[in-house]
Specification:
Blueprint (H helix, E strand, L loop, with lengths): L1 E7 L3 H18 L3 E7 L6 H8 L5 E5 L6 H11 L4 E4 L11 H9 L5 E5 L6 E3 L3 H13 L14 E4 H4 L11 H9 L3 E5 L1 E3 L10 H18 L1 H30 L4 H24 L8 H29 L7 H25 L6
Parallel strand pairs: 1-2, 1-4, 2-3, 5-8, 6-9
Antiparallel strand pairs: 4-7, 5-7
Helix pairs in contact: 1-2, 8-9, 9-10, 10-11, 11-12
The structure holds guanosine-5'-diphosphate-alpha-D-mannose and manganese (II) ion.
Length: about 350
């Protein structure tokens, strides 16, 4: 059996069109299926209409009262669905109802575990879609290329084998449930060309918040896909902020408290180490609740001190053997030293200071 999940918000006009058409397609093709509408308590009475439709068609509605959002509604639909293949589609007939059999057939035939409706493969495209939305969609798609090989990453139309989703923690934000599912479950997928037709009834619920949510969602997915690289980027950002702290402390101690710069540098170093430790603990490695602070902090300080040695050692080698002692080359030598030390500090932090050793 297949379960077709349709998230809705204020789709009173469209739901009464799609349910009969979907039911007919299922019947004509001899597919046994159920339609699950997950409605976010729409004020326009969408849910009541589905309840009426339920007398004649294989459809039911679940009303979410305490939460909002397209993706989360679909996740709720996954929980409720009884089929062994799930289809996700919009209520507004933008996704071609007649393509549903083509979406599930490759899965039934064992060719793949998921299919995604694509506007970007041969045979796919748009009908009556405003140009600015096409552009937004394209840009959004390009931004996702690092996490998926989907040709149309912002598509909202897919079919997937239930067993692929089981046990995977889905944590979508905003709209892109298909992207979330494909990145997290990494199924064997096939793209099915679709013509996306803009809705004739009602209006799009996509607003500027959806775009911000999309960027936040992508950030998470990149983190999921490339955890170490992602941590390294965070670690480097914390490092740069630490450099600002270091300089601020140095300047204040020298200019305001008349310290010798070489002594002030020691205070500056420890201020920066404390700063970095805090943010690496809470943000980069997100280990604030579990890591025992004392040993982890002491090892972090030690790693940073050894890192300083690495930096000076690398500088020494470059000055000695690459003739980088003269201005301005020593600055480059210093940068290469900082970069090497950052890598050293990163792996030291990851595998010692914030590792399982101190949990
Ligand atoms: N439950 C629930 N909660 N459903 C929602 C919500 C919500 O907050 N917001 C929207 N929906 C439902 C709509 O009722 C509709 O069935 C479906 O999600 C898509 O909403 P539209 O408002 O029609 O979106 P769109 O046409 O702008 O965007 C569609 O096309 C984009 C591609 O350009 C969606 O499929 C997007 O995911 C897709 O990226
Ligand atoms: Mn739409």
């Amino acid at each position: 059996m297949i379960s077709i999940i349709i998230p809705t918000f204020n789709e009173a006009d469209t739901i009464k069109l799609i349910v009969p058409r979907l039911s007919k397609v299922l019947q004509d093709e001899g597919i046994s299926g159920e339609i699950i509408v997950v409605d976010d308590n729409s004020p326009d009475g969408t849910a009541d209409i589905v309840m009426e439709l339920a007398e004649r068609y294989p459809v039911r509605v679940y009303i979410r009262k305490n939460d909002k959002g397209l993706s989360k509604a679909v996740v709720k639909g996954f929980e409720l669905a009884a089929g062994d293949i799930f289809v996700v589609m919009d209520a507004d007939l933008s996704h071609p109802v007649e393509q549903v059999p083509a979406m599930i057939r490759p899965i039934l035939d064992g060719k793949c575990d998921a299919t995604v409706g694509s506007r970007s493969v041969v045979g796919g495209g748009y009908h009556n879609f405003p140009i600015h939305r096409k552009i937004t969609s394209k840009v959004a798609g390009i931004m996702a290329k690092g996490v998926t090989s989907l040709s149309d990453p912002t598509s909202g139309f897919m079919a997937i084998r239930k067993s692929v989703i089981d046990g995977i923690a889905l944590d979508p934000l905003g709209w892109k449930i298909v992207l979330e599912v494909i990145v997290k479950t990494a199924p064997r997928f096939v793209e099915i060309p679709i013509i996306f037709t803009d809705r004739k009834q009602g209006e799009s619920k996509l607003d500027s918040n959806a775009q911000i949510d999309y960027i936040r969602h992508l950030w998470r997915l990149y983190g999921y896909r490339f955890p170490t690289l992602f941590q390294f980027i965070k670690f480097s950002l914390v490092g740069i902020s630490g450099l600002i702290v270091d300089t601020a402390v140095l300047v204040s101690f020298v200019d305001l408290l008349s310290f010798d710069p070489r002594v002030a540098a020691i205070f500056a170093f420890f201020a920066a180490v404390c700063w970095n430790y805090t943010f690496d603990r809470l943000w980069t490695f997100d280990s604030g609740k579990t890591t025992k602070i004392a040993y982890s902090f002491i090892s972090f300080v030690t790693i940073c001190l050894v890192g300083l040695g690495v930096r000076i050692g690398v500088m020494h080698l470059l000055i000695e053997y690459a003739q980088m002692g003269e201005s301005p080359w020593y600055i480059l030598a210093s940068f290469i030293g900082i970069f090497t030390a950052t890598i050293f500090n990163f792996f030291g932090s990851k595998y010692i200071a914030f590792s399982k050793l101190f949990r």
